[in-house]
Each structure stands twice: as structure tokens, then as C-alpha cells.
Write a structure and sequence with these properties.
- The chain has 45 residues and is mainly alpha-helical.
- The protein has a domain of 31 residues.
- It is built from 2 helices and no strands.
Length: 45
């Protein structure tokens, strides 16, 4: 039984490597540097 993280809408997994996961990680990394634009865009997608 592994850890499975889903978006709030119950959609895609953030555990499996895919384009959505890559975009999420990139947005989180930018947010760590006080650039929230990509995280907001991701959250709205």
C-alpha cells in the first residue's frame, strides 16, 4: 500500500511521473523562491 496524493478534484495522481506532476513540482519550487505565479496557474488548471 503506497502513498497516493490526488488533486482536490480527485483527478490525477502526483505520485506517478507525468506532465502534471512535473508542472506541480516546478510551480512548488518557484513558490519556494517567492514566485507564486506558476502555482496559482497550476491551481486553476
Amino acid at each position: 500500500m503506497g502513498l497516493e496524493i490526488n488533486y482536490l478534484d480527485g483527478g490525477s495522481s502526483l505520485v506517478k511521473s507525468n506532465e502534471k506532476r512535473k508542472a506541480y513540482i516546478k510551480a512548488i519550487q518557484k513558490a519556494d523562491r517567492q514566485d507564486l505565479k506558476q502555482l496559482i496557474i497550476f491551481a486553476k488548471s
